[in-house]
Amino acid sequence: MASDSFGIITPHPPIFVPRVGGEQRHVADASLDALALASRALSSFQPDTIVLISPHAPVVGDAFVVDTSEVLRGSLDQFGDDDEYEWPGDPDLAFRIVDELNAADIPCMPRNMNDRLMPGWADHATIVPLHFLKPASNIRLVVLSLSFLPYEIHRRLGQIIALCASELGRRVAFVASGDLSHRLTRDAPVGFSPRGAELDSAIVEGVRSGMIGSLADLDPDLIDAGGECGLRSIIALGGFSGEDPVPTQVLSYEGPWGVGYLTALVGGAALHAAGALESVAESGRKGGMPGSAESEIVALARHTIEHYLQTGEIAEPKLSDPAYPARAGVFVSLHRENQLRGCIGTISPTMPTLAEEVAYNAIQASTQDPRFAALRPDELADLEVKVDVLHAPEGCELSDLDPSRYGVIVMSGGRRGLLLPDLEGVEDVSTQVSIALQKAGIPPGTPCSLQRFLVDRYV
Predict the structure, then answer these.
(1) How far apart are the two ends of the chain, measured CA to CA in Å?
(2) Which of 207, 355, 421, 433 is the 20 to 30 A CA-CA neighbour of 306?
(3) Could you report the per-residue pLDDT of 184-240, keeping only the tens digit for each?
(4) Is there a single domain that holds both residue 386 and residue 398?
(5) Could you write out the DSSP letters of every residue in 284-349?
(6) Whose CA is closest to 173, among 241, 235, 111?
C-alpha cells in the first residue's frame, strides 16, 4: 500500500474519555480536537476494516499475536466508565495475516489459540482511539499485539498487513495506538528523564518529515531513557504506508500529565480525506448573506447576533450536524458592503460545546471588537457572516507557511498574534507574518516562534 494508504497515529489515555476524565480532559484539548479531525477523515475514507496495533493487548514477547475473533468487546470500567464497547471482527483478514507472517518466518500466533490471551477482549489502548474515531457499526476490526522482536520486523509486519489487505480487496485503515514518552515532567507516571522530550522530538520530526522508517534507527539508549509505548506501532504503520518519505500531517503533539501524545495522519489517502473535508468547507461558500443558503453554523452565528441585538438575551445555541467537531477554536467575521465590521475569535476552545463557542464569539464580534462601534439592529439587513473553525495548530518554520492554505500564529514572550488564512490582500508569507506580528505588538526582527493551522471556513 504506498502513498494511497490510510493511517492514523493516536494516543490512548483513558482520561480523554468524558466519563473518565470529566472536565480535566480539556487540559488535552489539542489532542481531542486532532482526534475529531481524524475521525472525520476516517468517515470520509470509509474503510472496510480497521487494523489496530495496541501496546496493551496481551503480549507474547517473541511473537506477534493476532486476534481472529468474530466480535471484539471491552469496557473502561476499571477507569470509571462502565459503557460497553463492541465491534465486529474480520477473521478472514486476521487469518490471512497469520498465514503470511508464517510464510515469512515471522513468529506469530492467533490470539484465539490460548484463552489466557483473552481472545475477543479489547484493552484500553484499543477502546480509547476507537471511542474518538467513531467507526461505523459495519466497519470490522482486527487487533494485533506488539512483540519484543526487532523494530525492522515490526516494519515488515506493516508491509505484510498491506499485502494481505490488497490480496483480499480490503479497504483498510491502519491505527497505530501508542503514547510517546512517559517521562516528560517531574510528576510523570514513571519518573522524569531529560531525554523524554528529546525522544518525543525525534519521533514527531520523523513522522512530520515522512521518514517513519528512520525511527527504527533511533539510539536504543534514547528510547530506553524516554520510556515510550507507541514507537513499535508507529514503525509498523510506516511499513504499511510504503517507502519513505510517506505523506503525513501532524495534527497535534502535547505533553500534559508528563506523557507525550501525538496525533497524525499518515498516507496519501488519509491526507486526501482530510483535504476533501476542507474542500467541502470551501465549497460551502454560498454568500453568507441574509436570505442566502447558509451552512448551519453560520445560521447559528447570525441568529445569535440578531436575537442578542433585538432582545439583549443570548439564544440557546445548538448544532445538529455530527460532522462538526465537538469543540474547537472559532473566529466569527462580519462584513458590510465588502468592509470588515467585526472579527473576534478563540485560538482554542473555551466553551463546553462548539455551538456555545460560535454563539459567544458571534456576540463578541458584533459588540466588542475594539476597532468598531457595536453593531446596530439596522445593520443586520446586509450583514455578511463567516465562521472559521480552527484545526489544532502545529509548530512550523517560515518555509512551511502558505497564506492561501494555512493561518499563522506568531509568539514571542507572552505576546501572541494570529492571522487567518486566505485573506484578501495577503498574498505572500512575508505579508502574512508581518500583519500577525503587528497584531501581537511584536516589533519586526524580534525572535519569535511560529505555528500554522488549517481552518474549515463556512459562509
Answers:
(1) 37
(2) 421
(3) 998 888 899 999 999 999 999 999 889 999 999 999 999 999 999 999 999 999 999
(4) no
(5) T-S--STTS---HHHHHHHHHHHHHHHHSSPPPP----TTS-SS--EEEEEEETTEEEEEEE-SS-
(6) 241
C-alpha triplet 243, 58, 69: angle, nearest 5°: 80
Strand spans (E) along 25-125: 49-54, 64-66, 71-76, 81-88, 108-110
- pTM (predicted TM-score): 0.64
Closest by Cα among 303, 293, 291 to 332: 303
The Cβ of residue 186 has, within 10 Å, a number of other Cβ atoms equal to: 8
Amino acid 292: pLDDT: 45
Task: Give the pLDDT of residue 425.
Answer: 86
Q: Are residues 257 and 365 in the same domain?
A: no
Is 1 contained in some domain?
no
Q: What is the DSSP-derived secondary structure letter of residue 112?
A: G
Q: What is the pLDDT of residues 322-369, one digit of tens each?
A: 778 889 999 999 999 888 999 999 998 999 999 999 999 999 999 999
Tracing cell 455530527 back to the chain, one arrives at 322
Quick one: 354 and 220 in the same domain?
A: no
**Which residues make beta-bridge pairs with 52?**
143, 175
Give the mean model confidence (pLDDT) for residues 107-122.
Answer: 95
Q: Is the peptide bond before 421 cis (omega within 30 degrees of 0)?
A: no
Query: Which of residues 221, 252, 277 is at a domain's end?
Result: 277
pLDDT grade for 291, boundaries at 50, 70 and 90: very low
Q: Do 111 and 58 meet the contact criterion of CB atoms below 8 Å apart? A: yes
Range of the domain at 378: 284-390
Domain boundary among 390, 417, 442: 390
